[in-house]
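Ticket 4471: requesting a sanity check on a complex prediction with flavin mononucleotide. Repro inputs:
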Amino acid sequence: MSALFRIWLLRGLAAAFETLAPFVLFQRTAQAAHERLLRWLRFLDNAPLCVPIADALHRLTTYEYATDLGGARLSQRLMLAAGLVKGDGFANEDEALHAVSAGDNIMPGWRIVPALAGPVEFGSFTRHPRIGNTGTVVWRHESTRSTQNRVGLRSPGARAAARFLGLNRSKLPKEFGINIAASPGVANIDEQTRDVVESLEFFLDAGVRPTWFTLNISCPNTEDDPQGYQLEAETRQLCSAFIQSLRAREVEIPLWVKISPGLAPEQYHTLMQVFSDVGVRAVVATNTLPKPSPDDDNVHAGLGGGELHPEALNSVRLLLAEKNRKRYAIDVIACGGIVDGASLREYKRLGVKAGQYWTALVFRGPFAAAIIESELARHERRLRAFHRESLA
Ligand SMILES: Cc1cc2nc3c(=O)[nH]c(=O)nc-3n(C[C@H](O)[C@H](O)[C@H](O)COP(=O)(O)O)c2cc1C
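Returned structure tokens:
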């Protein structure tokens, strides 16, 4: 397929989405649109021909930038971040396991989303099932292309998630990540470490071999202080136990860690030192930024998209400066406000090799990654032409 055809196809898809979204998608509240999307994903995962069609569309549109990243090899450098394909919430493990045994699709999007979007980070999964927060938990801010959420780590729990993915092993995508979150509300670090390692072991025991694991130690919108596990001793204990468990089983899957925006420079420096000491291969920067929710000033919800971008960019800048200063072998994966070619370019100029996105899905549609890459490629072509002309 010619590059020109792909460029025009992507321009058409971007224009179509941006024309239709205000009439179709943005007529509903973000909450209603999110719930409807999950219902569709649940259906499309198993609807005849949907996955091969999505796969063909992906191949037609995608920009393949084979990238060695954080100990893994990826076919493209933009991944869908954790939080969409995360599974249903359950009140307890018995119910979640029962749903898996009954053949329910407890993880809407697990087939159709990677087929359409390429690499996806599944999760976050917590050790025990969680319903998450109730009421309105998702908002969008169209003027700044931002989202806010307080989903609160809804999760089927790691045991049921692992069993579900294990039973469907043969249909898993060729590239995907699994994001395991620290258990909210568990203050004792030894108990927390047990939870995280047990979660990992459920996936390994079920024969699930993702391309990467991410340990999410930055959980806003939960009953925890999101900074709690990002302190030196806690991070060191959690990450080294995780890596030791992988090594003990001779499983060569890299560990990435997801952290918060807005930490002090010294805290980022300390985290990089810990990651380097224990063998973490990449850091995903960042999770969302807690701000008062649109409905209630006293309730916080995590900002993503345009309003997160400056904060996440600053975190990435600090992490990269430290990586370069100390020559750490850790990749920094940008996550925060990658919604168009310009925002991706800002990360790329800092030296970032790859990024994750979530909010772009809302404002740019299911082909967001390819659309963003094509905008960046167009911009870089123009810059090169400009330089050629000015040299001539
Ligand atoms: C509805 C929603 C749910 C999310 N759930 C998770 C989650 O379970 N685990 C996680 O690590 N990040 C989660 N995130 C955060 C995203 O992965 C991402 O870090 C954040 O939205 C910043 O990226 P963005 O600016 O492209 O949206 C969630 C984000 C949204 C909008």
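Notes from triage: The CA atoms of residues 51 and 178 lie 21 Å apart. Leaving this open until the requester confirms.
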